[in-house]
Sequence to fold (576 residues):
Amino acid sequence: MRYSQLLLPTTKETPAEAEVISHQLLLRAGCIRKLTSGLYTYLPLGLMALQKVAAIVREEMNRSGAQELLMPMVQPADLWQESGRWQKYGTELLRFKDRHERDFCLGPTHEEVITDIARRELQSYRQLPVNLYQIQTKFRDEIRPRFGLMRGREFVMKDAYSFDADDEAAGASYEIMKAAYHRIFKRCGLSFRAVEADTGSIGGSFSHEFMVLADTGEDTLVICNQCDYAANVEKAAVVLPEPAAETVEPAPLTRVETPGMKKVDRVADFLGVTAADVIKTMVFLADGEPVAALVRGDRQVQDVKLKNLLGAAEVEAVDDEAVWKLTKLPVGYMGPVDIPIRLVADQEVMRMTNAVAGANEKGMHLTGVHPGRDFSPELVGDLRQITPEDECPACGGELSLTEGIEVGHIFKLGTNYSEAMKATYQDTDGVDKPFVMGCYGIGVSRVVAAAIEQNHDDNGIIFPLPLAPFQVIVLNLGLKSASISDAAQQLYKNVQELGLEVLFDDRDERPGSKFKDADLLGIPYRATVGKVYEKDGMVELRIRATGETTLLPYIDAANQIVAMVREEQRRMNAVD
Ligand code: ATP
Ligand code: MG
Fold:
């Protein structure tokens, strides 16, 4: 491809709206353009990278025995009513009516449609197992679309669904997918980790997320330093140590004036206790209804755990102003005693004695608060975020926290959908049984962003070779010299004919800006034909990732470049 003919609008300035590096670089490198919030056009270079990811995904899915199909993006409400998700899914589901006033939605995921296919087309155990997948645009009306391709409203997903006769076979299908995912992300050149995960609104019993390790990740992972336990903090269960044997004399409930002390630490200081002695009361909206959640003053509420405990579809934190509007409770002085809204508590709170809590009156707190005696939450459970001071839930070992970007998610669904939608097959004994299902997603477009989060420097993108839109860029630095120009063009042609994807920078630009653009685009191998060619018959080859530069004799340059690329490809594709 000739650069002069490619729609590749690079920019020097960092776009103000882009917070994370992948978003900045995808814009600057002319890969994507924003249409409106959460919606992006892939320009040619961006699309090439996307298709590279899709091709790896497709190859490994096919290798694992899955079959590709393509389902409609528009889905009728009836199917979602059958599964029960029309009510449950919440506002991420974009719903609309057609001209006949019938309800539809844009597919955020395809369990309903595929289960409908299965119940029509799969009748017998002889047809199982089956794993069907597609690579397709999804729509989710995200509350906060952001970070460019990382969290769009429209994005490209690979979604696969397995149908098995029983739990054991479904477990085997799950393991096959887990192995395929390991191969996929390895072949994409990413540093990643599979972690135990919450099952969310898709439902099901068991799941793993594949996380690309990067500081800008929106997910926090907890990893054991001793065993191989790794989980999303949304999932990681807090194990409380054995309670201390000594019993504290319960003090009477006492009102104390705490003027202006809205923060846990200030109240604790003022009353001569620690944050761990204070009960923190936080208000959330659970499916539109206010709920107060209690955690110890030095802990954080984990929203997903709260959502699961409540069995809610959506849980949202509420800001101070809204708390007042909704509940008429004074922010900073809220507490569980006689609170007029729904109340739930973290398990740890129920062990507190002589605690401090807000009195639900401005400038006032209570001391000597006793859970059970002074208040009784409607639900008690594991509500708080795990910390590095907690024990590993698997082995009791030491934990550490790190950030990650979720690029894939696999679920054991069991029979949730097949039972709800009466999707059955006839077993060996002639009895109709529900399919045991699994579902498996990969954020194909998010992988592109995640790869850049993990692979970049001050000068731009450093595409892992398997995802690079072009493997080689050839720079012609001798536009005024016919011999340099001819040699550059010939090198471009030769490398291309030997089977590589090559971008030929034939633009009438200064060398400096050609070098800058080549760095920005992140093409792994850069071959420069310039003065050194004229003088010594040499081509300069530079590796983007390491900055390593070598001079190759022109005569042999094409072969050597191809050999280097092929060798690296072989290394990256070596998965078992
Ligand atoms: P998240 O927690 O990031 O919202 P999710 O749990 O909702 O993700 P799944 O339903 O498991 O996501 O979807 C499968 C994959 O699709 C995810 O692992 C992720 O890589 C990708 N994905 C999900 N939402 C988005 C989005 N808004 N933009 C881009 N990719 C997405
Ligand atoms: Mg989501």
Observations:
- The mean pLDDT is 95.
